[in-house]
Amino acid sequence: MTATACGSDGSAGNGGVDTDTPDSAGDTGPSGDDDSGETGAADGESGEAPVDAAGRCEYTNPFSQGEECRDYVGAGWTADAIENDCAEQMGTTTLDVACSDEGVLGRCILDGGTDLEVQIVFYGDDADACSLSQTGCETFGGGTFEPEGVCAGDDPTDSGGGGGVANPFIQPTLECRDPIEGEPPGDGPDGQVCTWQLISAATEEGRHYEDYADCNVVYTQRPYYPVDGNDLTGDERMDDPAYTAELDWVREQIEATACVCCHSDVAPGGSSNWTIDAPGNWVGTFDDTGLAFSAGWIDSTSFGAFPPEENNGFDRRYGVPSTDPDRMRAFFLAELEHRGLVEEDFADDPAFGGPLYSQLVYEPSACEKGERVDRDGTIHWADSPARYVYVLEAGSDNPTVPPNLDLPEGTLWRADVPWDEDTTFESGVLEYGDTPGFASQRFPASGAPDSLVEGQEYYLYVLADVAIPLTRCLFTY
Question: How far apart, in whole angstroms, are the C-alpha atoms of residue 201 and residue 303?
Answer without folding.
Answer: 11
